[in-house]
Amino acid sequence: METALTIAGSDSSGGAGIQADLKTFSALKVYGMSVITAVTAQNTTGVRSIATIPTNIIQDQMEAVLEDIPVGAVKIGMLSSSHVIKTVVSTLVNVKATNIVLDPVMVSKSGHHLLEYEAVQTLKEDLIPIATIVTPNLPEAEAILGRKILCEEDMKEACQQLNELGPKYVLLKGGHLEGDPVDVLYDGTEFHHFYQERILTKNTHGTGCTLSSAIAAHLAKGNSVVDSVHLAKEYITGAIQHSISIGQGHGPTHHFH
Ligand code: PLP
After folding, report:
1. Best substitution site from 42, 108, 109 to test ligand 1's pocket, by max atoms within 8 Å of Cβ?
2. How confident is the model at residue 109 (pLDDT cuts 50, 70, 90)?
3. Which atom of ligand 1 lies nearest, measured to the CA of 17?
4. Residue nearest to atom 11 of ligand 1 (CA)
5. Is the pTM of this model over 0.95?
6. Where are the domains of the chain?
C-alpha cells in the first residue's frame, strides 16, 4: 500500500489543511498519515484563533510515524514559526526523507497570518533547499524573493530565482494574475507551462493544500515529478469544478466525484 504523510495545520471546517490533505490522499487511494503542527479555529469566512503545537510534540509525532511506517511522500503545509520549521527540517534530514512536497503556506485567503513574518528567512535557508518540489502561489513567491511578479515572463524569472535556493523543482502557481491562470514548473533547465481556463467559483478554500497533497500522493505511487504535477492539476481542476457551496464564505473543493 502506498503511503503519504502530511505535516500541516488543522482546519476545523474541513476544507483546508490536514483535513484537505487526508481527503485528497483517500480519494487518490493512498494511505494517509498526519502530523499536526497547529490547530486553527476557522470556518469558510475566516480564522478565529490559532494554537501552535509544542515542537517536542511535533517531533514525537514525526518520529512515531517515520520509525514505524514507510512513508512514500511527505507534504508540508502550515508551519507557524521558525522553531517549528527547524524541528521539521532536522527530523526529516535525520530520517533521510524523500519526495518532499513543500506548500509554503503564509496567509489564508481571509487574510490571517499562518506563518510568522520573521520565519520566511528560515523557510528560505533551511526548508526550501531540502524540498523535492516547492509550490508557492504568487504572493508567497513574492514574499520569499522580495520582488513583484506581474506577468508570465516574471514568473519564469522567479522560478529560476527560487530554483537557486536549492529545491529540485519549483511549481509557481499563477492564479493570482488576471485572466486564465497559468502555472509554471521549472526543474533547473526546462520549463513546463500548465494552461487552464479560469473556473468561475468563490469556492476555492483549500485549493493550495489539495494540489500539494495530490502531488505527494502521485509521487508516493511512483510517478515522476512532472507526471505527478500533471495528474495533480487534473485532480484539483475536478475538485474545484465540483466544489461545494456550504458556509457563508469561500466553500471547499470536493474530493469524491
Ligand atoms: N488553514 C490551514 C490550517 C491551512 O493549512 C491552510 C493552507 O493553506 C489554510 C487555512 C489556507 O486556506 P485558504 O488559503 O484556502 O484560506
Report:
1. 108
2. confident
3. 5
4. 108
5. yes
6. 3-241
The one-letter amino acid code at 154 reads D
Q: Which of 205, 207, 209, 211 to probe ligand 1 with, by most ligand atoms within 8 A of CB?
A: 209
Q: What ipTM describes this predicted complex? A: 0.91
CATH number for the domain running over 3-241: 3.40.1190.20
Is there a catalytic annotation at residue 204? Answer: yes
Active site residue 175: no
Q: How far is the CA of 20 from the centre of ligand 1 (A)?
A: 9
Q: Which three-class secondary structure string do you get for the chain?
A: CCEEEEEEEEECCCCCHHHHHHHHHHHCCCEEEEEEEEEEEEECCEEEEEEECCHHHHHHHHHHHHCCCCCCEEEECCCECHHHHHHHHHHHHHCCCCCEEECCCCECCCCCECECCCHHHHHHHHHHHHCCEECCEHHHHHHHHCCCCCCHHHHHHHHHHHHCCCCCEEEEECCCCCCCCEEEEECCCCEEEEECCCCCCCCCECHHHHHHHHHHHHHHCCCCHHHHHHHHHHHHHHHHHCCCCCCCCCCECCCCC
**196-253 pLDDT, tens digit each:** 999 999 999 999 999 999 999 999 999 999 999 999 999 999 999 999 999 999 999 9
**Which residue shows C-alpha cell 492539476?**
233
Mean residue pLDDT of the chain comes to 96
